[in-house]
Design goal:
Distance between the termini: 94 Å
Mean pLDDT: 83
Low-confidence stretches: 1-39
Number of domains: 1
Keywords: Membrane, Transmembrane, Transmembrane helix
Structural class: mainly beta
Shape: globular
Number of helices: 1
Strand content: 35-45%
Protein name: DUF4352 domain-containing protein
Amino acid sequence: MTEPSGGSEQRPRRPVVVPAIALVALTALGVTALLGGLDEAPDAPEPLGQGAVLDQGMYSTKFVESRVKVEKGELSFDADKRFVELVFDVTNKTDETARVGMPPEQPERAFALTSFAGSLLKISPAFPKESGPFTFALIKGDESQQLQPDVPTQVVVRYRLKEGERPPDKITIDVGSFEEGTDFLSAEPRWQMVSEEVGDKFVPEIKARVTLPVRQEAGA
């Protein structure tokens, strides 16, 4: 067999050096591709903590605290009641009375809600159904379910603890927001939760993720 022109001797190949920055760029592009492209990577919700104020469209909300509250038994033989409470200062920014409402059992059920507590899309860790939630606004010391326009109001969302149950160290809340839209039937303007259509469902968007330490008083 005749050897190819130039002989059979092979010169050793020189290794190709790829700059580290190029490897980082390629890795980043790969991760972005997995997330669906440069323009489709989901935005992480805004992280907030105790004392933060959030513009929710319909409401301006301050996340005051999370605490353990003890209610003493009325009689000597009545057991004390312990609650984990989430405390908010809420201002209804609309021209009409709004409701305190209830947190949704599942986030995807919240897109049609306009109550304040309806925007508390997910509360972690989750409490059992028998623990609550119980919600109310405090107006001059009385409990109410109403939020009057432009009146800062303290709102409490509470869960009852079982006897001997240890409260969590912190609570994280996924919070939605609202925008003005048009009623489908009447064409009148109305508020609606900011949501994204996913398949045959409307899933509320998470505006912020708020983490609150749970404050425990002595004896709680």
